[in-house]
Each structure stands twice: as structure tokens, then as C-alpha cells.
Specification:
Blueprint: E1 8-10, E2 23-29, E3 34-41, H1 43-49, H2 56-79, E4 84-92, E5 96-104, E6 108-115, E7 125-133, E8 139-145, H3 151-162, E9 167-173, E10 178-185, H4 189-192, H5 196-204, H6 209-213, H7 217-224, E11 230-232, E12 236-237, E13 239-240, H8 246-256, H9 258-268, E14 271-275, E15 280-284, H10 286-293
Parallel strand pairs: 1-11, 6-13
Antiparallel strand pairs: 2-3, 2-11, 2-12, 3-10, 4-5, 4-7, 5-6, 7-8, 9-10, 14-15
Length: about 290
């Protein structure tokens, strides 16, 4: 292929495309039996944390959780699933009470964190991994103990213990961007190259967040794994999706019933519904309540 790096080729045509900044990129090392996924978010991530005022350590923790949710959500995209949602929820006894992020099969994200101060310590708790089939309503959940220093180590321990998979997970985040890199060692990797896994993990560990922000995924992977032959798959775009939906909130109020809503209105002068996940606040005065129940 003229004009392309001989160490990297893509399934399908290689085209000149605009700079992609919110994506998941799947890839495989052709001669090593190692596969990977790379997620990099800027615009989608900043929209998710906009107006929330998270201290830097809390934003980093939520960013790590979000990156991991997208890496897992990309599995649904790979398998052709539709209508599913992956949710990661961390509950702890420390200053961070709750961190939750989810990703749909079409890679729409949202998330939030509840915390006291700027200490990112979670304390004792658990990580819940939930898959919800939105079409059938079925829910599958796994509970993971918080064993490890940070989300990457916690989830890596889970993969090794529950699924007997050797994996490497790198997570980086700040208030402007996040990235995640997941590598999985396939069963025949050691037979093909006894040092291959160690070599790839060493190179992966050098990735910085700054490197991911202004680079095309192809260029980034070639630069990071400069002596390896890579096959990359089509990019998948990621977007933040938490629409303003007053109709749904009005349905909640009708579900409470008019007497209950009227009592809140009489006591507080208005009814306020806060959607913590989307950082939306819905306010209903008397005229709005009359419209809801008319």
C-alpha cells in the first residue's frame, strides 16, 4: 500500500479522515497472539464532566472508570450486539461514596461521582459490573472486591481470577481527556514469542495521556509499538449522551400521584427533581404541576 506504514495495515480501505478524538480502536499483533483495544476521549469526556466541579483526583477516578466502561462496551460493538448497556459502579466506605459510568452497545457514555472533599480514597467496598439487555430487560451482574491500588489493578485482578485471562490495563485521565489501553494475552502467545508479552507490556506502560490527545489512532499505535506488525480494525466513535428529557420526569411525578406531589409543592414552594447521572435539574412550580396533572 503506497503511502502507508508497512508495519500497520487496516481491514478495508485506508482513507484520509479527519482527526478522530473520541474513539475506540481495536487491534491485534499479527505475530504475537496478543489483542488490544484503545479508547481516547476528549470532547465526549469534557461534556460529561462540564459544570460538575470535580476536584482533579475525583475527575481522574471517574475518568478511569469511564475508560474501562468504554473498553468493555466495545466488546458489544465487536460482537454486533445492540440494545445493551455496560455499567460499572464502585461503592466505597471512604470519602468517595459512589462512582458510576456506563456505556451502551452503540458507545454512548454517561457517569457521575459522589464524594466528600477531594480525597479519591474509596475505602472498603465493591465494584459491580452490570450488563443490561435493554430489549429483553434481563440484567446480569458480577461483584468484584476492591483488591488493588486503583481501577486498573482491581479489574486486572478480576480478569485473572474469574476468567483466567492474563491482561494488561492502563488508564489515564484528567479534566480534559482520558485514555485506556487494554491488552489481552491469547493462549498461544508464549509459543509464538516467549518474550512477546513482556515486550508489549513494557512499551504500553510508556503511553502518556498527552500523547493521545492530538494523534490519529493509527499513528499513535505505530509510534508506541514501533517494531511490531499490527492489524487495526474500523474505528468506532464514542459520544456523551444524556439528553434533557422533561417528559420522562413528568411521568415520574404522575407515578408519585397528585397528593404526594401537592404535599411537596406546599412544603417547598416548588418540586425539584435532580438527575445525578446527567447533572440535570428539573424544577416545577405550581403552574407546571397543574400542566403535568391536567
Amino acid at each position: 500500500m503506497g503511502g502507508t506504514d508497512p508495519r500497520l495495515w487496516s481491514e478495508g480501505r485506508i482513507e484520509n479522515i479527519r482527526l478522530q478524538t473520541d474513539y475506540v480502536q481495536r487491534f491485534i499483533f499479527e505475530h504475537l497472539d496478543i489483542r488490544g483495544r484503545l479508547v481516547c476521549l476528549t470532547g465526549a469526556w469534557t461534556r460529561m464532566v462540564e459544570g460538575r466541579g470535580y476536584p482533579a483526583p475525583i475527575a481522574e477516578l471517574l475518568g478511569h472508570t469511564t475508560a474501562l466502561a468504554v473498553l468493555l462496551g466495545a466488546n458489544q460493538k465487536q460482537d454486533g450486539a445492540s440494545g445493551g448497556r455496560i455499567t460499572l459502579q464502585v461503592q466505597g466506605s471512604g470519602p468517595v461514596k459512589l462512582v458510576v459510568a456506563d456505556c451502551t452497545a452503540d458507545l454512548k457514555i454517561r457517569g457521575t461521582a459522589h464524594h466528600e472533599g477531594d480525597d479519591p480514597a474509596i475505602g472498603e467496598g465493591k465494584l459491580a459490573l452490570t450488563f443490561e439487555d435493554l430489549a429483553s430487560g434481563q440484567i446480569y451482574q458480577s461483584l468484584v472486591p476492591l483488591e488493588g491500588a486503583g481501577m486498573a489493578e482491581i479489574f486486572r485482578n478480576y480478569l485473572e481470577r474469574s476468567e483466567q485471562r492474563t491482561a494488561y490495563l492502563l488508564l489515564r485521565a484528567d479534566g480534559a481527556a482520558l485514555c485506556g489501553l487494554l491488552l489481552e494475552k491469547l493462549p498461544g502467545a508464549d509459543e509464538r514469542d516467549a518474550d512477546g508479552w513482556n515486550r508489549i507490556v513494557h512499551l504500553a506502560s510508556t503511553l502518556t495521556l498527552a500523547e493521545t490527545m492530538d494523534a490519529q489512532p493509527y499513528d499513535l499505535l505505530v509510534r508506541l509499538f514501533h517494531e511490531e506488525l499490527l492489524r487495526v480494525f474500523p474505528l468506532h466513535a464514542v459520544e456523551y449522551h444524556c439528553p434533557w428529557d422533561p417528559g420522562k420526569v413528568e411521568g415520574v411525578l404522575r407515578g408519585l400521584g397528585r397528593p404526594e406531589v401537592e404535599s411537596i409543592l406546599a412544603e417547598q414552594g416548588e418540586v425539584v427533581i435532580k438527575n445525578e447521572m446527567c447533572n440535570h435539574e428539573y424544577r416545577f412550580d405550581r403552574a407546571a404541576i397543574e400542566a403535568v396533572f391536567t
